[in-house]
Design brief:
With 281 residues, this protein is mostly helical. It is 62% helix and 0% strand.
Length: 281
């Protein structure tokens, strides 16, 4: 299972925001859909691509639901959908339209490649043989989006990412932390997929807080922007915030002071634990 510590973090964020924790069991979609195609992180980790990633995943699971979980039938149905999308790409009138269809095809194909792993992961973590349905995606759209953004945020503490593409190719990451810890030991432990890395990271009174999910989404993106080297211009950060909030149907301004403070407190706690656990000898 890919980066279970990220999924745990996403689940805790979902909980403090009072949403359905099951949404977090799909939080690692950005990693899964690029597992066999590393260059695809350009698509999957870009914040502006997350709605496309979610919509495509909903379509795949909806087809699985309609075919009675018959993977062969589902893949055949999606082969037809992909063929139709490829034709739309060929008929595109401009480069932006062509890129839209190219990204859509990439996401479809890679979700289908990882479908067995994705479904088994969800069943194992949710403790249920019932896969997400079309209704689940519609009712938990906010939780699903927030869990993916939380996953991407936590990933900035593990590896640098170009999160704000195509508006900027500046990488965000926890540069100062990496200089103070044993990165070889840190990376090796993460690659084992162990679920007991710094267990106290998800303990303490901080996780009993009750926060707003929309404001949390905004705070996560602000922090990712501040972790850029150099920091991402706020105009780009703000554009990405607005794109994702509008995807959720929210056009109002959201204050995120409490959620921002929560993340800063969590980061301080995390740095102390990581520096102790992965101390340079």
């Amino acid at each position: 299972m890919d980066q279970i510590i990220n999924i745990k973090f996403a689940g805790k964020i979902i909980e403090v925001c009072g949403l359905n924790k099951n949404a977090a069991y799909l939080a690692n979609l950005p990693i899964l859909v690029t597992k066999d195609f590393s260059r695809g992180t350009f698509f999957s980790h870009a914040l502006s691509s997350v709605p496309d990633l979610l919509d495509a995943t909903e379509e795949v699971f909806s087809v699985m639901e309609e075919t009675g979980r018959d993977v062969v039938k589902a893949r055949k149905t999606f082969r037809e959908i992909i063929n139709s999308t490829e034709q739309s790409m060929k008929n595109a009138s401009n480069i932006m339209e062509e890129n839209f269809y190219t990204k859509k095809i990439f996401i479809y194909e890679n979700i289908l490649i990882q479908l067995d792993e994705l479904t088994s992961q969800y069943e194992k973590m949710a403790g249920s043989s019932n896969l997400p349905t079309k209704k689940f995606f519609r009712e938990n759209q906010q939780a699903l989006l927030l869990s993916i953004i939380a996953f991407i945020y936590f990933n900035q503490w593990i590896a640098p990412r170009q999160v704000f593409t195509p508006m900027t190719f500046i990488c965000s990451g926890s540069w100062q932390l990496w200089e103070t810890i044993d990165m070889t030991k840190f990376t090796e432990q993460l690659q084992t997929g162990a679920d007991d890395i710094c267990p106290s990271l998800f303990e303490g009174s901080i996780w009993s807080e009750k926060l707003d999910s929309f404001a949390m989404l905004k705070a996560l993106i602000i922090r990712i922007g501040e972790m850029g080297s150099p920091p991402i211009p706020y105009s780009i950060v703000d554009w990405n915030i607005r794109v994702l909030l509008r995807y959720l149907g929210l056009n109002d301004y959201k204050k995120s002071d409490m959620e921002y403070s929560f993340l800063k407190n969590f980061e301080t706690h995390m740095k102390v634990l990581f520096q102790k656990e992965f101390n340079k000898q």
